[in-house]
Amino acid sequence: MPCPVVHFEIGCRDRDKSASFYAHLFDWQMTPGDMATQIQTDPGNPVTGHIVALGHEPFHYTNFYVEVSDLAAYLAKAAALGGSTLIPPIPLPNGDSFAWLSDPDGNTVGLLQRAKP
What we know:
The protein is α+β, with helices and mostly antiparallel strands. The chain folds into two domains: 1-67, 2,3-Dihydroxybiphenyl 1,2-Dioxygenase, domain 1 (Roll), CATH 3.10.180.10; 68-117, 2,3-Dihydroxybiphenyl 1,2-Dioxygenase, domain 1 (Roll). Helix content is 19%, strand content 40%. The protein has an eight-stranded mixed β-sheet, with helices on one face. The longest helix is centred in the N-terminal third of the chain and has 12 residues, at 15-26.
């Protein structure tokens, strides 16, 4: 099963300032929400993103998300390959779940498991 990159996230201290920067720099469409600003980079491209200000560390980061069929299995596989779990699986309001792992060099990678139909 392929594991495509399906989403990206930009962490910041000031969500409005960051959204304005990326909107003006790349002409990305921004849609502010309660917790995050959604990003559409290209109407024909299904890869979307969001900008979020967590209010705590990490204040600034970029992360990409890979869609996988089983978060626990991929976190275990990452650990066997020298990685580690940073954030264990967390359910999202839409039924999807996500997790973060660290690769052997310390890079953060997000995993996304879609809700089962």
